[in-house]
Design a protein that fits this description.
There is one protein chain. The protein is α+β, with helices and mostly antiparallel strands. About 20% of the residues lie in helices and about 30% in strands. A hairpin with a 2-residue loop joins strand 4 and strand 5. The termini are far apart.
Length: about 150
């Protein structure tokens, strides 16, 4: 059974994992150079169990979520279900790092800041010199010309 206290413990563990990641106490020593901050936590009850979700804000938020998900910054509870952090792209417009610890699903996400598609130039008009196939006559075999 997942209690409110165990949910708070997992939230604190995730908060500490983010703090250690951002201060360079993990193998990614350059994470401290990223400009990204963790927002407040939201709690929801899903079909798979409780979900804690927090948005990462800042100019480097997307890169921070990617690097956090591929680092070994997450610590797991000693009890309950566990799942390693994975990057999730199923929700349009955002990238999330999702993992499970102690039966609680945790999610850090950042909005996708993909560059807008460049305006395409209109198609070029055909030039003055159009290439066409030259028409030539071929001789038929067996015919002689005088």
């Amino acid at each position: 059974m997942i209690t409110a206290g165990s949910i708070l413990l997992e939230q604190d563990a995730a908060q500490n994992a983010w703090k250690n990641f951002r201060t360079g106490k993990t193998e990614d020593r350059h994470a401290a150079d990223l400009n990204a901050d963790l927002g407040p936590w939201d709690r929801a009850n899903g079909a798979m169990g409780p979900l804690l979700s927090a948005r990462v804000d800042g100019p480097d938020a997307l890169e921070a979520v990617h690097r956090f998900g591929t680092s070994n910054a997450v610590t797991y509870s000693s009890t309950g279900a566990r799942c390693r952090p994975t990057l999730d792209y199923t929700v349009p417009g955002r990238t999330a790092c999702v993992w499970q610890s102690g039966g609680v699903w945790l999610e850090l996400w950042a909005p996708d800041t993909a560059p807008q598609a460049a305006v395409q130039a209109p198609p070029k008009r055909p030039g003055r010199w159009r290439v066409t196939r030259l028409t030539t006559t071929r001789r038929r075999k067996g015919t002689k010309t005088a």
